[in-house]
Each structure stands twice: as C-alpha cells, then as structure tokens.
Amino acid sequence: MNQIFLGLCLYLLAIIIVSIWTVGKNKTHAEFLLADRKLGAIAITLSERASAESAWLVLGLPGVALAVGFQEIWTVLGCLGGIIFCWLFLAAPIRNLAGQYDSLTLPDLISNYFHDDKQILRVISSLIITFFFALYVAAQFSGAGKVLNVAFGIPPVYGILIGGGVIVVYTIVGGFRAVVWTDMIQAFLMFCTVVLLPVIGLIVLTSAPTTHLEELTPAILSVTGNTTGWLVGLGIIAGLSWGLGYTGQPHLLVRFMALRDVRSIRRCQAIAFTWAIPAFCGAFAMGIVGLALYGRQPFTDPEKIMPYMATNLLPGWLAGILISGSMAAMMSTADSQLLVATSALTEDLTHKIAKINLSPRQFVSLNRLVTLGVALLAFVLAFRSKDLVFALVSYAWSGLGASFGPVLVAMLYWKKVTREGAIAGMSTGAIATIIWKNIAGLNQLITERFASYFLACLMIVIVSLMTRRRYAQS
Predict the structure, then answer these.
(1) DSSP 8-state assignment for residue 41
(2) Contact status, residue 185 vs residue 14, Cβ threshold 8 Å
(3) Contact, 260 vs 38, CB < 8 A?
(4) Is residue 290 within a helix (H) or strand (E), and if so which, with residue range?
(5) Which one is the CATH code of 2-389: 1.20.1730.10, 3.100.10.10, 3.40.640.10, 1.20.1090.10?
(6) pLDDT for 322
(7) From residue 415, how far is each of 89, 113, 411 by CA, in Å?
(8) What separation in angstroms does the CA of 2 have from each of 202, 311, 315, 316, 318?
(9) Are 340 and 205 in contact (CB under 8 A)?
C-alpha cells in the first residue's frame, strides 16, 4: 500500500512541477487560453486524446463491459468512428476557420462565422458550455473519489477533494500550456493502464486456481445482449451514438483551433489513431477479463474494477503507476473542461459581450478566478450526485455533442445554414438532452445521445431553409 501511495505521489508531484514551469509563460489572454497557437503536433494530439477519454474510458467503459458484456462493443465502434471522422473531416477546416476569424474560443468562432451582431449565438453557446461542463467536471471529480477509495480506503468525499484540488491548482497556475504538457504525460499513463492491465489479467486468468468463467454467459458473450427484433437495432444505435458526440465537444475542438498549422494534420491523425484503437479495445477487454477473474460479487459498483484489478494483480509500485493512469484520465479531461468553461465566461461573456477591456495580466487573473468558481460548482455537483461516472459523462457528452456538433458540421459542409438555423439547432440540442434524460421511459426507448443530435440536425435544416427563403424574398 505504501508503494502504491508513493507511485501516486510521484505522479502528482510531476504534474505540479510541469505547471510551475509554465506559469511564467502566461502573459496574455491568448497564451492562457490557446498557448498562442505555438504547440506542436505531438503535444496537441496527445492532449486531445487524453482530454477526450476521461474517467469514462478507464473506469466507466470497463465497468459497463463487466455489467453488460459484448453488447458494449458497439460503444467502442461508435467512439472509434467518431474519433476518425473528426480528425479526417473536422480538424483542418476548423483550424482554418479559427485562423480566418482570429477566434480563441468555440463560441467566438460560431458567432464570428454567422456575423452575429446581436451576440445571441455567443450567449447561448457560453451558457451551454458552462452548464454541461460543470456536470462533466463533476464526473471526473467523482471518479477520483472512487479510485482513491479502492486504492487507499480514503472516503470518496476526501478523494474528490484531493484529486480535484490538484487539477484546479495546475490549471489555474499554468493555463492551456500546462494543460497540454500534463496531458502528454497523462495520455501515456492512460494508454499503459488500459492496454497492459487486461493483458496481465488474461495471463493470470490462464493459470489462476479459481476463476469465474461460468459468468461469461451467452447473454454476456452476445453482441446483441440476447435481444431480438427492434431492440437489437436500438441497442446498436445506443452504442454507435457515442460517436456523434465527438463532433461537438468544445474541449476537443479547441485542440484543432490551437494547432500551429494544418500541415501537421496527417501526423496528428497517425498519432491519434495509433493511441485510440488499442486504448478502447483494452478498456473493453478489461471489463470482460475482470468478470472472468472475479465475477460480479466483489463489485457493488462495477466502475471500481480497474483499481481492484491493479491492487490485486500487480506489485505495489506498478499498481501505483497504473492507478496514476486512472487519475491521469480524470485530470486530463477536467483541466481542459475547466479551461474551456473559463474561456466561455471570460472571453465571450465578459470581453466580447459585456465589452469589459482589461490589461493582459488582469485577464489572466480573471481567468484564474473564474476557473476556481467553475471548479467549486463541480465540487458541489460531485458531492451531491449519486449517478455513476458513465451516466454523468453520457449526459454531458450528449448535451455538448448535440448542441455544437450539427452546427459545426453544417458550417463546414452545408452552405445554406443560417444564423437562425444555428440558434435553433444549438437550443434544441441542449433542451432535448435535458428533457430526454429526465423524463422516465424516453431514455430507455432510445438514448438521448442519438435523439437530441437528430432533433438538432432536423431543426437546423428546417429553420435554415425557412429563413433563407425569407431573406431571398426580402
């Protein structure tokens, strides 16, 4: 146990050192929010991967694979499809648009593209980001509580405070540059965790004196969950719909905006795909191998399978490294989300809408203060929420994906989209997610990830065609 704790402490110390090293480099608003677009392909790509795959990948996906089985393979395929689509079809166009309109944030880019003088798009998008990111960051803090509880017996409340506290400190101190450089370390640790741990578990399974292979029932091994008829289609749609959300996640899209230039896109694509495919397959395999090794009995909460396997299968020092990987997953996502939520409140609402002009150093100080405020809100939500990490992330992922994904795709590939269509689509995506999630029965019929995205696309098309016709007549 002391060795595990030592490994985790060394990791946290490394993160703090990196953030301190970057503190003197944040002299302007642009440097704090986008590192002045001076970061290279490797740094940006690994940061995008680490930010995208949070506690959900290391805790949530193995947990749901343990509980549901091979039916969750559709989630893996959906996520990989979303990642590939974004890097192939969104990365370069978004970077070009961000440079063309000199935009530091996603709300800024959308507002500038539609020449929204009334700033309606900026206000709506900023509020959507703040609301759903507070839930998303709360999921990461909750994940930290679970990991530290299993590894060290620390009560989840204190685990949330410890994990979340470290995230807040280095994000406030180092800004985007600290987030990206720490994400590189975290991406490596996450990859090792989700790839090595199931391999080690499989080796142990082949020689273990007692196993729980009988729990690999036909229902667990079925990619349809032994369902028939229309339920098969709904299950497949539910899994694949995770891929839709990648097109609208502000903390990922801002990485495309921060690229030094588009010439490095091909290199970024190779890095992203090489990381993502083994990582998702490994996280899924971890749940299945864990079920075969231990069964369901030890897990009142299946999302504790990763730290349980690490502490039971590995020497203390190695378990400490892999548990650090799970902390890395939470930190790499939460820090990015805190920074994007901060940018929406300072750059978009304070600077562009309220027209408050501060000196560069004053804006950096304001960013740090707002980051702390958003983090405190996330702490409250993490303490109060009883949802699993998987459920919290699904809710926030759906809201952000449906609000921004259809609008961005339309901006890039459909010239008939109008400002009114964008307003209708963003509003519909957010509202439909909230309604679908909170009305009993709707979410069980079809996931809010698909329903809200589809409704947002529909509204963009209908309203854009109506308003475009009106403009033509006038």
Answers:
(1) H
(2) yes
(3) yes
(4) helix 265-294
(5) 1.20.1730.10
(6) 76
(7) 16, 12, 7
(8) 26, 12, 11, 8, 12
(9) no
Half-sphere exposure of 469 (CA within 13 A, CB side): 5
| DSSP of 147-174 | HHHHHH---HHHHHHHHHHHHHHHHHHH
Q: Which residue has the tokens 């540059």?
A: 177
Provide the pLDDT for residue 367: 73
End-to-end CA distance of the chain: give it in Å, rounded. Answer: 73
Burial class of residue 434 in the structure, from the number of CB atoms within 10 Å of its CB (0-12 exposed, 13-18 middle, 19+ buried): middle
Give me the pLDDT at residue 284, please. 96
Q: For 445, left (φ over 0), alpha (ψ -120 to 50), or beta?
A: alpha
- Tokens coding 49: 């991967």
Q: What is the DSSP letter of 1?
A: -
pLDDT of residue 210: 78
Residues in the chain, overall count: 474
CA distance 335 to 172: 9
Interatomic CA distance for residues 250 and 246, integer angstroms: 9
pLDDT at res. 318: 80
- 335: CB partners within 8 A, 6+ apart: 51, 167, 170, 171, 178, 179, 182, 183
Q: Could you tell me the two tokens for 198?
A: 């199931």
Please list the rounded mean pLDDT of every run of 10 residues in the chain (474 residues). 68 71 56 56 83 80 92 95 96 91 86 92 91 83 77 78 74 66 80 92 87 88 82 88 94 84 88 96 95 86 87 82 70 71 75 72 75 82 72 86 97 95 97 88 83 97 88 56
Domain ranges of the chain: 2-389
The residues, ordered by sequence, that sit 6+ positions from 120 with a Cβ below 8 Å of its Cβ are 419, 423
How many CB atoms neighbour CB 200 within 10 A?
16
Taking alpha carbons only, the member of 402, 57, 456 closest to residue 248 is 402
pLDDT value for 203: 93
pTM, two decimals, is 0.84
The C-alpha angle 282, 287, 288, rounded to 5 degrees, equals: 95
205 burial class (0-12, 13-18, 19+ CB within 10 angstroms)?
A: middle
pLDDT recorded at residue 24? 56
Please check whether residue 146 is in contact with residue 303, taking contact to mean a CB–CB distance below 8 angstroms.
yes
* Residue tagged 């509204």 (tokens): 459
pLDDT attached to residue 39? 65
